[in-house]
Specification:
four-stranded mixed beta sheet, about 40% helix, elongated
Length: about 300
């Protein structure tokens, strides 16, 4: 069975006529008929029912054509991307936990490429999905953090799936809240001082491990919590509910606005270490694409400026 035979069969099924198919394919009808008979003999099925009114698919033929189209479509996709006349856009994707600096760096990277030639994607998503996206090559790079609490669980998951973590920066935990919050002007904020306010955390899915939480210090029992799915909603709840979240303190005002502030978090005996190690994950032994290299460069540039 050849790709040419698949192409012939698909064309015949679409036209319902050997004559019309032969005209479209620029093939002599006897050659087309012979090719189909050879294919049917090889497969051991009858693909077409021939009559004076034309040709139609048999039951076996209907099923065969479904698979034939899938295979031939993949062939066309490969040729459109890698063939001499290939015009398919090059793709680059990033999946990240909810970090505004990751989005800002992505914007600066995209500005340096012609978007007519490239297809870019950035996905702010759940921690497990960040990892899954890199595993399945949906994204080339994933952005997440490690801490004393989640390190063993996350690193084991990365090793199991042949991924590696590259450290970008280590930082202390900060309390991120609205500038109108009663605690916003404090020089630092303790866990006890936050007890009257809801902790806003990104939803990780009903079956996700608490090791996937984006908020550091998840070993602590927050008296009040509200789950959200996106940064915009979280920012709104910071104002409406006087909520807060614990983060890296690396905030992009250009994207989040200037109505919010990050105050150093006080760690004590009743809380675990407040250190966060933010980095990116990729498949082991991979050579980053030009987009990937530039994206990492832009992130490092932004984080160095923040420090």
């Amino acid at each position: 069975m050849t790709l040419q035979q698949l192409h012939y069969a698909i064309t015949i099924s679409e036209t319902g006529s050997l004559n019309k198919a032969a005209e479209i394919l620029y093939v002599a009808q006897p050659s087309l008929t012979g090719s189909m008979k050879e294919l049917e003999k090889e497969l051991g099925i009858t693909i077409f029912h021939r009559s004076g009114r034309g040709v139609s698919l048999t039951n076996d033929g209907v099923e065969f054509i479904i698979y034939a189209r899938q295979i031939y479509h993949q062939y066309e996709s490969l040729m459109s991307k890698y063939g001499k006349e290939g015009k398919r856009k090059k793709k680059f994707g990033v999946s990240a936990q909810h970090y505004s600096f990751a989005v800002k760096s992505f914007v600066e990277m995209v500005k340096q490429f012609n978007t007519e030639e490239y297809e870019f994607a950035i996905r702010e998503t759940k921690t497990k999905e960040v990892i899954d996206d890199v595993i399945t090559s949906k994204s080339e790079i994933g952005i997440l953090y490690l801490s004393d609490f989640n390190r063993k669980a996350i690193e084991k998951l990365l090793r199991t799936n042949n991924l590696e973590f590259h450290k970008l920066i280590e930082c202390d935990a900060y309390v991120y809240l609205w500038k109108g919050h009663p605690l916003a002007k404090n020089k630092s904020i303790s866990f006890q001082e936050l007890s009257d306010y809801p902790c806003l955390s990104f939803e990780q899915g009903a079956e996700s491990s608490f090791y996937f939480a984006e908020e550091i210090l998840t070993t602590s029992e927050y008296p009040r919590t509200v789950k959200v799915t996106d940064r915009a909603t979280m920012l709104n709840l910071m104002i409406g509910l006087k909520g807060y979240t614990l983060c890296s303190g690396i905030i992009c005002e250009e994207l989040n606005g200037s109505d919010y502030t990050a105050v150093p978090f006080e760690t004590g005996e009743d809380t675990s270490s407040g250190k966060m190690e933010i980095g990116y994950i990729v498949k082991k032994n991979i050579v980053l694409s030009s987009m990937g290299e530039l994206y990492v460069k832009e992130i490092k540039k932004y984080l160095n400026q923040s420090e």
